[in-house]
Amino acid sequence: MTGLALAFRRNQNPAPGDDILVLEEGPQPGGTLRTLREEGLVLEAGPNTLRTTPAAERLVSDLDLGDDVLVADPMAPRWIVRDGRARSVVPGLPAVLTSAISPGGKLRVLKEAFVAPRPASLDDEPAHDFFARRFGDEFARWAAGPLVSGVWADDPATISARSAFPKLWEAEARSGSVLRDLLKAPKAPPPRFRARTISFRNGLSTLAERLVERSQREGVRIELNAEVAAVEGPFEAGSEGAAWRIHIADGTVYPADTLVSTLDAQSLSTHLGTRLPRSASRLGAIAYSRLAVVLQAFHTEREDAAPRGFGVLIPRGEGFRSLGVLYLSSLFPSRVPGGLALTTSFFGGALDPSLPDLTESGLLALAEAEVRRLHPALGPRTHGRVLKWPAALPRLPLGHHATLTLLDEDLAEVNAGGERPRLVVTGSWRDGLGLGERIARAEELAPAL
């Protein structure tokens, strides 16, 4: 998505001599965007929603997709399972009232403003330790834990709090307390932007398809099935040809003066490691979580049988194997045929890494059993699909911020002496996990290349 959005934005205001090429490794544009349109259903096997940023709202408008936008109810409850029962969590500050946290646990959350700030010597810590230190053990176990495993598919005991939750980390640094920082009135409040959780009538892949259509019409080249085999360069200024030569697995070689990489960290280390001497070994060590995504449709003979809300997160130890279940028919009911409920279950991640090895029939049976355990009144299952992602989400280790600092130093050396950068590196492991962040980064980069 970053590459497509960047190509579109750059091509709106091209520099003289621009020749823009997007290399997409897979057979479909948009990277992990994967909308399946089957039997009258719109199913998402990759990202399910877009949490908008100002840049994302501008992109949707500029692509004339406003009439296709579907907006999720911002107050749709999230659910957390505790003691075998789903407990609602309303977005925002009222979330502290959830029955997933005991009265004593809620009181401890509110005492966060009086907890001593972290010592200056602590430059990172695991997410579980951060939330336990600031908000108490119960909040860390029953709220933050399932959030980490549900959003990052990672282990709360190992993922970096500083890198996975940078806004909370910085809030404590500014004010000594996350709550005090959130409640502090800004001196000059900026124009208010209200983020939305959206999709499109025909799924999120609509965004990638429209980007391809508009960009190619204006002369951008987009090559599918273009798996990178090797990258040569950068060649010194004045040498014959371009700064870079990108070799594709089918033998094609593309020259380039500016290279924007959206590769995963390990692939970046493999292809450009000798050009990144400070950071390459650390980038190559970044692991990725494996996921299996199970998409299901059920008959709902009674309206109250269908799941409602955003979805459910499930802490470890509750007797479930799924990390969580999304309720897309509740979020976007207008694109779901009447009498059906759609669920998306996620399996695997750092805490259950072998689970995606189950057969498709085994995963379907497990997903159906767990959805029915949460919603026993659902009718027969009418549709089921399984997709597996061998490297779904980056796992950000302790000290990940130091890796990014070393990468910045490497890039400064590669790009030294030029008016414009020769190499730019971005990706979910560096600039934010959500689609909204990816689009914002593309808009930021476009004029600088």
User: How does the overall form come out from the CA principal axes?
Assistant: globular
Q: What's the total count of β strands?
A: 19
What is the CA-CA span between the terminal residues? Answer: 18 Å
Number of helices: 16
What is the name of the CATH superfamily of the domain at 2-33 and 47-68 and 202-262 and 426-448? FAD/NAD(P)-binding domain
Described by strand count, sense and barrel closure, the largest sheet is: 7 strands, mixed
Average pLDDT value? Answer: 94
Beta strand %:
15-25%
CATH architecture of the domain at 2-33 and 47-68 and 202-262 and 426-448: 3-Layer(bba) Sandwich
Structural class: alpha+beta
Q: How helical, in percent, are the residues? A: 25-40%
Order of strands across the main sheet: 7-6-15-16-17-14-18
Oligomer: single chain
The CATH top-level class label of the domain at 2-33 and 47-68 and 202-262 and 426-448: Alpha Beta
Unreliable residue runs: none
Query: What is the CATH third-level topology name of the domain at 2-33 and 47-68 and 202-262 and 426-448?
Result: FAD/NAD(P)-binding domain
C-alpha Rg, in Å?
A: 23 Å
Secondary structure layout:
Elements: H1 2-12, E1 21-23, E2 35-38, E3 41-44, E4 50-51, H2 54-62, E5 69-71, E6 78-82, E7 85-89, H3 103-110, H4 127-135, H5 137-151, H6 161-164, H7 166-175, H8 178-183, E8 197-200, H9 205-217, E9 221-223, E10 228-232, E11 244-248, E12 253-256, E13 259-261, H10 265-272, H11 280-284, E14 288-299, E15 311-313, E16 324-326, H12 328-331, E17 340-348, H13 360-374, E18 381-394, H14 400-414, E19 423-425, H15 428-431, H16 435-445
Parallel strand pairs: 1-9, 6-15, 13-19
Antiparallel strand pairs: 2-3, 4-8, 5-8, 6-7, 10-11, 11-12, 14-17, 14-18, 15-16, 16-17
